[in-house]
Amino acid sequence: MAVTKEKMEAWLRRILGVDKLNLGLLDYIARIPRVKDLTDVASGTPVLVRGDLDCKPGAKVGEGDIRLRSMKETLEIGRSRGWIQVIFGHIGRDPQLSLDKVCKRLGEILGCEIKFVPDWFDPANLTIRSEVVEAIKAAKPGDFILLENTRKYDIERVLWKAKPADIPNLAEKLAKVANEFAEKIARVYVHEAFSAGSLDTSSVVVPAAMDKVALGEYAYGEFSGPLADCLNAQLVISSGLKIDKLDDLQAMIDRGKIRWVFTAGSLAMGLIKAAHQLEGKDFCIGVQEDPAHKDQPYYIPPERIEQAKKMIAEGRQKGIQFVMPVDFVLQDGRVATTLGPQDQQFDVGPATLDLFERKIGEFLEWAKTLQEPAIAFHNGVFGKFEDPRFEAGTKRFMAQLKRMKDAGVRVYVGGGEGGKALEQYGQPDWVTHNFTAGGTVLNALGSEPVPFLVSLEMAATKSF
User: What are phi and psi of 455, to 5 degrees?
Assistant: First the structure.
């Protein structure tokens, strides 16, 4: 049945968080089928696969293509069942980027030719081009078709900055797009793009018109296994440039499991200032509190300090230890324990690393009192680690992840920059699991649900 404008309005209200369900991560996973559940999809049926295509393949298989390889099990299931799989997704944020090299590498991984359709959508009329329809008609059971970068078309990005007030104006257009996919490509949809956590039309709108939806095997495994384990973490190491992570940290604390919080980056600066104010003092955090910098991602507004004060006060009452930096590497390379109004921190200093290592030791002693292995979640990096002048903190701390794992702690790294740092300064076996998607992991553990899980749950339960 076609999606009406009214139904799309209801759908978008859920996607944009106007109407919310009180569901946790495991609730979503329980309500969404997985690929293995689609046993009644017949051979020769076209199936849309939202793929994890955002990668830069290296010279050979195994280099720069981990996301493509994560899709293999799901795609092999579809091939064994004779589905005609139409794979689509994005690469980067630049609409001009192409998936041509990704298509070639995916073919190498699957050991077959993949039909590539470079221009598959008519943005003026919001319709699927005939080239796609003809490619599906010409395909045999088990064949693959790959569509060019979805972000080539503006409609894919229309929800990125959308507000609830925009819903009435967007609903008719997006309903038409969803219906086009259902009428001209497929009515079965599989989401195997674990890292695609943005409000892309391909991820959060197209499922509205599908008869059947499912999570890919890799995405299902990440959510139901490692991420489910992270919900019970007792120690969290959180850092990064944006103070927004305060919301995610609050959500993790609210679950009642966290007992140790290590912080660095802008998040730490906000918490340090808050901790001083709770003691009736103050602490200058430099340009990060200067309203002249309010358009910068590192700016910390006063309301965030108030939020941090409440978090620390309530957390300490629950017995949570907040471990924060005590010295900083500043913009000119100086190591200091205080900041002036024009200063900005770019890394933690050596005294902080000594403190962190001592506190990790205390955590490991505490963990021995538990009846089961402790769990630690590490997200982000300690400074501007891509600059050698500011990499020392991130580099040195990687050894603490290995130290914890060697002591029996289950250690998870939340992908993104933290994952890059592990690859650069450590080894994969230093941790229990390194996620391939930082944003999705933070969403799943943080304050807001993963958008594509909201979409799949609505499509699976027909609750819109």
Answer: -65, -50
At residue 133, the pLDDT reads 98
CA angle in degrees (0–180, nearest 5) for 90-92-95: 75
The Cα–Cα gap between 249 and 268 comes to 11
What was the pLDDT predicted at 50?
Answer: 98
Element housing 35 (H / E): none
Cα distance between residue 216 and residue 146, in whole Å: 17
Q: What is the largest CA-CA distance in the chain?
A: 73
* pTM, full prediction: 0.91
Q: Which residue has the tokens 């393949």?
A: 57
Going along 1-98, which residue ranges are E strands?
46-51, 84-88
Rounded distance, CA 39 to CA 34, Å?
10
For 313, residues 6+ apart whose C-beta sits below 8 A from its C-beta are 278
- From the CB of residue 336, how many other CB atoms can be counted at a distance below 10 Å? 14
Say which amino acid occupies 381. Answer: V
Sheet of 335-336: strands edge to edge?
A: 335-336, 328-330, 345-348
Q: How far apart are CA 170 and CA 178, in angstroms?
A: 12
Please give the average per-residue pLDDT across 281-298, as a whole number: 94
According to the model, what pLDDT value does residue 1 have? 66
The one-letter amino acid code at 461 reads T
Tens digit of each residue's pLDDT (9 = 90 or more) over 137-171: 999 999 999 999 999 999 999 999 999 999 999 99
Across the strands, what pairs with 412?
377, 433
Q: What is the mean pLDDT of residues 54-73?
A: 95
Give the span between the Cα atoms of 82 and 235, in whole angstroms.
46
Phi and psi dihedrals of 130, rounded to 5?
A: -65, -25
pLDDT on residue 266: 87
If you count them, how many residues does the chain have?
464
Task: Considering only CA atoms, give the Rg of the chain.
Answer: 23
Q: How confident is the model at residue 438 (pLDDT cuts 50, 70, 90)?
A: confident
Sequence-distant (≥ 6) Cβ neighbours of residue 445 within 8 angstroms: 25, 227, 230, 231, 248, 251, 252, 377, 414
What is the arithmetic mean of pLDDT over 73-86?
Answer: 98
Q: 169-203 burial, b if ≥16 CB within 10 A, otherwise e?
A: ebbebbbbbbbbbbebbbbbbbbbbbbbbbbbbbb
Tell me phi and psi for residue 212, to 5 degrees. -135, 140
Query: Can you read off the two tokens belonging to residue 187?
Result: 């009515």
Residue 367, both tokens:
């963990």
Return the H-helix or E-strand segment holding 26: helix 25-31
DSSP state of 34: B
User: 261 forms bridges with which residues in the sheet?
Assistant: 236, 322
| 237/378 Cα distance (integer angstroms) | 5
